[in-house]
Amino acid sequence: MYCLVLILAAAAVVGGRAAVVSRHMKLLDIDNHIDTNAVPTRRTKPFIKLIRGPAASIAHRPGTTLELTCEAVAEPAPSVHWFKNDAPVYEYDKESSEVIPTNPSSVARISSTLLVSRTEEPAHYTCLAVAGVHSARASTLVYRTDGSTESSERSKLVPLAPRILVSYKMFVDTIGSDVVVPCRARGHPRPSVSWQTSDGQDVNDDPRMKVLRSGDLVISSLRWADVGEYTCRAANLFGSTEVKTFIYPATERKAQADNEIKSSE
């Protein structure tokens, strides 16, 4: 990956934010040694790592909603796609499977949840995390426990209170990039989604930021001043929920690093 992490970590020490950045960098599950004298190193290949996946088999009790969750960290920022018996699940649950546009220079940790409202026959579910040409997957067998198979009108409308299905826990990209940070929520009725900056301000107060109908946050021309923990909140008549995403704008020094390496060869 770009030497983004080492460079941004070093910059954070100078800015007095080392502790905050270090805590959030652990979410990327990569080496996070902060060294103010760090020298940019050659870029490594893009990577992907599955951090969390569903158990090998899961019992689904009738009348309940089963949640299957996958988390992955990757460069570029990954997306997660769900499959049921090798068929894409977007037909069943569009919110959890839409593709999120990403930049090649980005790094992120994503969490994606699939809601299974009913299980008649045993089925294999697979989460596929994709980042560029790299991918990682995890599968589970979902089976129904003994009980009534009748669906009430209420169960057909689940979930009622909002659930946030797709979000980034940590996101890094280069200053000047146009970025999209996901927050895909589901509920009945459809929840409204809002975003706040780390200081509690509505993102709509900044003309460079806007919230899409999908719930995703768009930031145009990412700046260093945008660094911080952003909160996405989804709400409807039956309740509310929120997730936090730490956004880190990094300086791009790949060209400088390559020149230094070439001059030393």
From TrEMBL:
Subcellular location: Secreted
Annotated SUPFAM superfamilies: Immunoglobulin
UniProt xrefs under SMART domains: IG (SM00409), IGc2 (SM00408)
Assigned keywords, A-Z: Disulfide bond, Glycoprotein, Immunoglobulin domain, Repeat, Secreted, Signal
Pfam families tied to this protein: I-set, Ig_3
Principal place of residence: secreted
Domain Ig-like: 46-139, 162-244
Keyword field contains Calcium: no
Signal sequence bounds: 1-18
A cellular component annotation (GO) from this entry: extracellular region
Source superkingdom: Eukaryota
Similarity comment: family membership: Belongs to the hemolin family.
PANTHER family: CTX-RELATED TYPE I TRANSMEMBRANE PROTEIN (PTHR12231), DPR-INTERACTING PROTEIN ETA, ISOFORM B-RELATED (PTHR12231:SF253)
Protein's name according to its UniProt entry: Hemolin
